[in-house]
Design goal:
2 copies of one chain form a homodimer.
Chain A (H helix, E strand, L loop, with lengths): L1 E6 L9 E6 L6 E4 L6 H6 L2 H13 L9 E3 L6 E5 L3 H10 L7 H5 L3 E3 L5 E2 L5 E2 L7 E2 L2 E7 L3 E2 L3 H7 E9 L1 E2 H8 L13 E9 H4 L12 E6 L2 E7 L7 H8 L4 E2 L3 E4 L8 H8 L12 E6 L3 E8 L20
Parallel strand pairs in A: 5-18, 7-14, 8-20
Antiparallel strand pairs in A: 1-2, 1-4, 1-14, 2-3, 5-6, 9-13, 10-12, 10-18, 11-17, 12-14, 15-16, 15-19, 19-20
Helix pairs in contact in A: 3-9, 5-8
């Protein structure tokens, strides 16, 4: 089952409805659930109950994609981004002159918390962020958690994952590079936009795509202005999403409404090519560029880079400390 | 004005009330606001309106600290932790064999997003996290954002900050050290507990403590088992909280209910002493240790380290990639 969040162009800007997505291409229709339906709640209920509500939605008329604005399927209560694709880590490390992933990468998965309020809809324009000449994308697959988990086994984690979507973790590489000198990871380099969508495909629907270890194995690709620039498979992740949720939940809450992302797949970011090529080839994204990401059995997100917004003035450099003893 | 979140020990575990804190020491009382009062909303309203509601609360009987369980004053909708104390960065860098803060530290403030669901109450026990032999604390001051800001000036930011509290960003240094080899910052090393409290002191109440540049200048100290191990002043931050909020809001949302923290002050973490001393002196925290943090004009948080909880089994090492071409 595919579930989308949407509003009609004539609705209030903060209106939000959930729809059942049926059909493909020009036959695709979004069939609204009852007003008040919540996407995370629908995913957290039993399949039987969800199906019965979906039957009601399907019986009524659907809307074409021209008749709706698709919204981020979830406004996350927290968002973790992992680093699970060995070949991506290998490419980035070689770009820094290292021989490959450090031993620590293999031991257990790492993640960072992301800007939860930066999520944007699957077809939304993305404004060029300030202070960057190196705008990049990151092709990822993301899981939507629909039940609270703490110290959950892999089996608990499986029951807590409601579905999956495509994610573009937009990144300002030059800003991020300066910030990461402080060892805490990126700050403003990644807090301006994260595209998720186009909808959530329920976990049960993707079971046929699991490999012998239970890893989802879906083809992933990204194009810029219609030209494919990256391709990989989600089966190349070092850990399954169930393992990632279990790991995140060790002595910590993973709550309903959280999003956990795979990290960038191999060739899923321009920066990986820049490291490999020793030059900005392909070039950083420019205003007007269209980035399109597709994951097999999930769907496609498409976003145009548009002009910078008017931003706040930068803050001054640090005030040097004056050593007045406490 | 001091505002605390609390429940009575006999209330449901998820009960949550807001109280006006009056008096000091044994005369301290928590005067409940009407049921349904929300701490972030109270802080977001005008001072006149807040005072009028506080007058009603103050007229009724108050509860002693023995009669309440103080809760985290806010369950953050997102949480940023900055790195604003030059002397702390200097100490940590020297511990890594570097000559001092990199030039990038001075240019603009960096931050990471924290685990928002890890916040715990001001007097709560903290369970020893798994996989660590190097539990540490971090003494910080935190601001509570009570109005949404995007591209806000320093003046906008000032209107958006409702108040301040003490924060202990508990850290498992060995876990964090392994994770930070991957350059994304800490993951499991910092997602298990963040103590905030004991209450929020409204921003207006701290105005007398602003220095000539408008920076809050409050004495900060931390003790372990009654012995002072760290002291600094918030006036040693490289940027004011208003500058931090403005910076965070550039091309990004900072929303009501967010918490922004200063980062560790100088001598506000054992790890800084470990770097300076070249040895684990003072020793890492052990079960039974009591960590107490005080910030002038705000208050004190006190937490005991207790036994580990039963955690989920660790996940296996990464599955090595099998190069099936996409």
């Amino acid at each position: 089952m595919r579930l989308a969040a949407f509003r009609r162009p004539t609705d209030e800007p903060d209106a939000r409805f959930v729809g059942l997505v049926l059909g493909q291409g020009e036959h695709l229709r979004v069939h609204p659930f009852d007003a008040g339906a919540d996407l995370v709640e629908l995913l957290g209920e039993s399949a039987e109950w969800r199906e019965s509500r979906a039957d009601v939605a399907a019986a009524a008329d659907g809307l074409t994609l021209d008749e709706v604005v698709l919204l981020p399927p979830v406004y996350p209560v927290a968002m973790r981004d992992f680093l699970t694709f060995e070949a991506h880590v290998d490419g980035m490390e070689r770009g820094h002159g290292n021989p490959g992933p450090p031993a620590e990468w293999y031991e257990s998965p790492v993640f960072l918390f992301m800007a939860p309020h930066a999520v944007t809809g699957p077809y939304d324009d993305v404004a060029m962020p300030p202070d960057t000449e190196r705008l990049d994308f990151e092709l990822e697959i993301a899981a939507i958690v629909v039940r609270d988990v703490r110290n959950g086994s892999v089996e608990d984690a499986r029951a807590a994952i409601g579905g999956y979507c495509v994610m573009n973790d937009w990144s300002a590489r030059d800003v991020q590079g300066r910030e990461m000198r402080l060892k805490l990871g990126p700050s403003k380099g990644k807090d301006f936009a994260t595209t998720i969508g186009p909808w959530v495909v329920t976990a049960d629907e993707l079971d046929p795509y699991r490999d012998e270890d239970g890893f989802l194995d879906l083809a992933m690709s990204v194009s810029v202005n219609g030209r494919t620039v990256g391709e990989d498979r989600s089966g190349h992740m070092g850990w399954s999403f169930e393992q990632l949720v279990s790991h995140a939940s060790r002595a910590s809450w993973v709550k309903a409404g959280e999003v956990l992302a795979s990290g960038t797949c191999a060739s899923g970011a321009l920066a990986e090519a820049w490291g490999r090529n020793g030059a900005l080839v392909p070039p950083p994204l420019q205003v007007g560029d269209v980035v399109e990401m597709t994951i097999e059995a999930i769907g496609t997100i498409t976003n145009r880079v548009v002009e910078r917004e008017v931003v706040a003035a930068p803050v001054p450099p640090a005030r040097r400390r004056t050593r007045v003893e406490a």
